[in-house]
Write a structure and sequence with these properties.
20% of the residues lie in helices and 27% in strands. It is built from 4 helices and 14 strands.
Length: 213
């Protein structure tokens, strides 16, 4: 099985490839700005890289058109990102977790958040964000249930793009799921739901909430 790192960036894609775009999403918090992720991925070893705009679901869908086994290959192993190429990989136990409903959010369907988490855990490499504060990218969304990653580090402290391992982002989401109470039958499909925002100590956070997708 090949092991190709997948990089998602809110900056311009580094290599030329086939471009697949998705519909932009509004900001998860009023006053925040949205920077839409561009992903670069090889559908299979030696393939021409695809450059995909959107969420992890858009990545898997585009790659699976070329390699029908892409999802099985990616989701059957644990991410092994190198600590020396990423920043801000503190443990979720050091974070500040908010499980209260804020900003008028509605709960996301737990089943589809867990499905998005599974896909994110299939990624190697890192996400990159331009300077904050208040910069967010939607990394996963299906059936009105979204995962966002936000950068709140001020521009003077964050001249270079912030890089965070997909493993760290996944751990933050997993920690939120494990520690926030569920709202029974309150999801968009009358299933157990969850909303959460987990603030990591180095200035980034993850959001779980309902969204249009």
């Amino acid at each position: 099985m090949y092991r190709q790192a997948i990089v998602a960036s809110v900056l311009t894609a580094l290599l030329t490839g086939a471009l697949v775009t998705a519909i932009p999403a509004p900001a998860p918090i009023p006053g925040y700005k949205v920077e839409h992720f561009t992903w670069e991925v090889e559908p299979h070893a030696g393939a021409k890289p695809l450059v995909v705009s959107g969420t992890v679901q858009d990545v898997y869908a585009a790659a699976s058109k070329i390699n029908p086994n892409f999802e099985a290959e990616r989701c059957n192993h644990t991410s092994a990102s190198k600590r020396d190429i990423v920043e801000a990989t503190a443990s979720p136990s050091e974070s500040n977790l908010n499980c209260d409903e804020v900003q008028g959010w509605h709960g996301a369907d737990l089943r589809y958040i867990q499905d998005g988490l599974k896909h994110l855990r299939g990624l190697e490499g890192y996400a990159a964000s331009s300077p904050g504060p208040g910069t967010c990218g939607r990394v996963s969304c299906s059936y009105a249930s979204a995962i966002w990653w936000c950068n709140d580090v001020p521009i003077l402290q964050n001249i270079n793009p912030m890089k965070v391992a997909w493993e760290a982002i996944s751990n933050s989401v997993d920690y939120s799921i494990s520690n926030c109470p569920l709202c029974p039958g309150g999801g968009p499909y009358d299933a157990p739901c969850i909303f959460a925002q987990n603030f990591m100590p180095k200035g980034w956070n993850t959001i779980i909430r309902s969204d249009d997708c």
